[in-house]
Amino acid sequence: MSEPSIFFSDVNERQGSFLRRTFVFGGFSGLGILALVGRLAQLQIVQAQEYATLSSQNQFNFRMVPPPRGVIKDRNGVVIAGNRPSFRVLVVRDETKDLDQTLDLLGQLLPDTMDRRRAIIREVNAASKFNPVPVKSDLTWEEFAKVNQYAPELPGVMADMNEARYYPFGGAFAHVIGYVAKVSDRDVQAIRDKGQQPPALLFNPSFRIGRQGIEKALDQDLRGQAGGNRVEVDARGRVVAEDIGGSRPAVQGQEVILTLDADIQNRALEVFGEESGSCVVMDVRNGDILAMVSSPSFDPNLFVSGIPSKAYRALADYERRPLLDKALGGTFAPGSTFKPVVGLAAMKRGWDPSRRVVCNGSFFLGRRFACLGRHGAQDLRGAIKNSCNVYFMTIATEFGPDAIAETARDLGFGQTFDIGLTGQKAGLVPDREWRRRNPVRGDGKWYPGETPSYGIGQGALNVNALQLAVYTSRIANGRQAVMPRLIKSIGGVEQKAGTPFGELPYDPQMLKVLRDGMEAVTDVGGTGFRNSQLGLGAVRMAGKTGTAQAQNYGAGSRKGAGRPWAQKDHNLFIAYAPTDNPRYAVSVIVQHGGLGGGTAGAPRAREVMKVALLKDPDIRARIEHAGFEAPEDAGVREAEARGEPIDAPAVDVAAPPPEVTQ
């Protein structure tokens, strides 16, 4: 069977069909070529610059560089919070084929990274693309060299040198300076809760944010401005070179200078040893805080790279609370250090300071309130010297709690101060109105039986060490309501006290009576004589002892011997010096330091005060040129030869008191 065939009856008909197909296909081809040429012209001529820019951006990445944190110095220019070079190892997630395998290999070189493996994986996965995440900081030179040696076998791992926050004095400034730590989700959320957008810097794994103290309060000033490195990357995003010209250097944060003195601060922490408590030193002329210490302390360097949970729990669970700033946040009954307040409140309302009150060892108001001695007839100056409970209970009941509360607030109690730090506790200065707002078992009446305890610094009253230092400074100054200042300058700009000084609403002669009594406390026969002698010739210190009960002992003994630490009384001492021209005031609280403010508080205040005085050029010149014999031992021997008491007067132990202060 033959194949079918097509026959054209006309040759011209076949040629016409061919020409039509040729023209159709040729037309389509021409249009395609024209479109291609037009597109090429648009890309190479019209949009050439645009695509050149995009190409450059694909070739180069801009990686953020956290800025060096601003340095914090003391009043003499000593660095108390700075930066130091630190070797570290980093991991870039997008450059590793297998993160688990990479960390396994890295763990063979740095075994301690295995302890943080889960945290490292979490941080690496949370990091943005091609952003290096620190795995370990503070590598030794051997560790740094080992990582670099095996770098070709560790894809995505690099070692470099950066600046890490450093606190050269360890725990001496821990509470007032604070520390820096990694940014947490709560930090970011806190910014968003304010309706603000968190800056990109907070998401950089190498960035640290201020925690507590000055680091937190001045975080924005200390933070600086981030920079960036413009780096050339390959198709996988790995760095192959750096474009120095396109990089932007980071700008270091502002320098902060505090009023603190490193020598006084270090000595204040040193004298506490293992004891718990706080110490504040102030200049009574301008309010500068020279030292503000809380003991025991902690090393803030532990928190910079992340403190191990076991170490943190050890600090948090220790009964002496090293993480608590006791100078601002620890409140205690002031005990007998409060008695000058009661005396001043009485004088303002007409009490004659020369009027004598007879002390037979007891005060009766519904029940017996005991005194630590039988002081006989004495005036206000003598009552301060001997720390007589009967005297101050007498005037407290005569003038009442409202008068005492008013004077206490005038002298700095029951309030916080604008020193740039948060975390201050205002304490409590009770009065009748407070009792109405805080009834006991539904009864809002202030009962007379509460007043004697108030008159000797007990009851609901509680204060902190900074308030005690302000109170002492105002008595020593004699005229002005001195306000504390902690921040001296920020970025070279001088900072003034948060609140201007006002005049004290008291006759300077009334305050002179209080100073006379406090000078007698540190003189022969005073409650703080033995442990308050400076040994600096004519430069002497005046003060007031105090003991605050930690619990009600009933008919038991208050002596600390044999008692657990938490059951011992708190030991307090306030002082100023020199007595003839006051310059410095100090307050010391020794938590559960035992009976007698002159036994634990006074010797510590003495040692801290000596450093402050000897660092003062004028006072040092006065001491060096006066020519003197240190009076401490000689004064004790002379007093003993005359048969005079050395410390407190004889104690009446016939009836141990339920509420007593000295």
Automatic annotation (TrEMBL):
Domain called Penicillin-binding protein dimerisation: residue spans: 65-242
Membrane topology: Single-pass membrane protein
Keyword Cell wall biogenesis/degradation recorded: yes
Domain Penicillin-binding protein transpeptidase residue range list: 277-610
EC number(s) reported in the record: 3.4.16.4
Keywords: Carboxypeptidase, Cell inner membrane, Cell membrane, Cell shape, Cell wall biogenesis/degradation, Hydrolase, Membrane, Peptidoglycan synthesis, Protease, Transmembrane, Transmembrane helix
Keyword Flavoprotein: no
Location(s) in or outside the cell: Cell membrane; Membrane
Ranges of biased composition (kind: Basic and acidic residues): 634-645
Primary residence: membrane
SUPFAM superfamilies from the UniProt entry: beta-lactamase/transpeptidase-like, Penicillin binding protein dimerisation domain
Region called Disordered, residue ranges: 627-662
GO molecular-function term, one example from the UniProt record: serine-type D-Ala-D-Ala carboxypeptidase activity
Family matches, as NCBIfam families: pbp2_mrdA
PANTHER family for the chain: PEPTIDOGLYCAN D,D-TRANSPEPTIDASE, PEPTIDOGLYCAN D,D-TRANSPEPTIDASE MRDA
Official protein name in the record: Penicillin-binding protein 2
Organism: Brevundimonas nasdae
